[in-house]
Amino acid sequence: AQTVTQSQPEMSVQEAETVTLSCTYDTSESDYYLFWYKQPPSRQMILVIRQEAYKQQNATENRFSVNFQKAAKSFSLKISDSQLGDAAMYFCAYNKRGKLSFGAGTTVTVRA
Amino acid sequence: GAVVSQHPSWVICKSGTSVKIECRSLDFQATTMFWYRQFPKQSLMLMATSNEGSKATYEQGVEKDKFLINHASLTLSTLTVTSAHPEDSSFYICSAQERGNDNEQFFGPGTRLTVL
Prior knowledge:
The complex is a heterodimer of chains A (112) and B (116).
Chain A: E1 3-5, E2 10-14, E3 19-21, E4 24-26, E5 33-39, E6 46-52, E7 60-61, E8 64-69, E9 74-79, E10 88-96, E11 99-102, E12 106-111
Parallel strand pairs in A: 2-12
Antiparallel strand pairs in A: 1-4, 3-9, 5-6, 5-10, 7-8, 8-9, 10-11, 10-12
Chain B: E1 4-7, E2 10-13, E3 19-25, E4 30-38, E5 44-51, E6 57-58, E7 67-73, E8 76-81, E9 90-98, E10 106-107, E11 111-115
Parallel strand pairs in B: 2-11
Antiparallel strand pairs in B: 1-3, 3-8, 4-5, 4-9, 5-6, 7-8, 9-10, 9-11
């Protein structure tokens, strides 16, 4: 079974600053996908970034980037130049053969 | 592309009645759909996986007779909460996978169920 751990229930960041959300996971597989999803107050799940485990290069999407450490089973998300619209709950997720396992989530607040 | 809709977005029902929630993939064929349940400020919990034309696979602890799932076409899956009780009140989210791509799920906007 796969488990995903997000150890930070809440994080606060000043507008324009950087915040890093941590995620660790447990698996015995070598080929899998990892995701970060954003859930704003509307509760619509939005894909932020995706990482394929066999790719060593860290994924980047505009202001969002990950630090993927496969051996350590760590998958952190960095939000740079934080904006008010980044305020949301963020979920780390592991995908193997189509099924997603989610972490408990981290609520990010952005201070103006 | 890859849009998933849910209907209704919010439903209130009386205890003991049944409620049906629809999940539709609008611009792609979804061979697999998933149903999740989410309580406030908590994570998404997978309830069941449905494949078009076959019976749904339920996660451990989910009552299949209470949460009836039907995936009759490549664009529609339904979740029926039978004999709903207040403890069934929650936010229900569906997601869909496109044929040939099980590496990504596209999420619907969710349905808020309140049972009085």
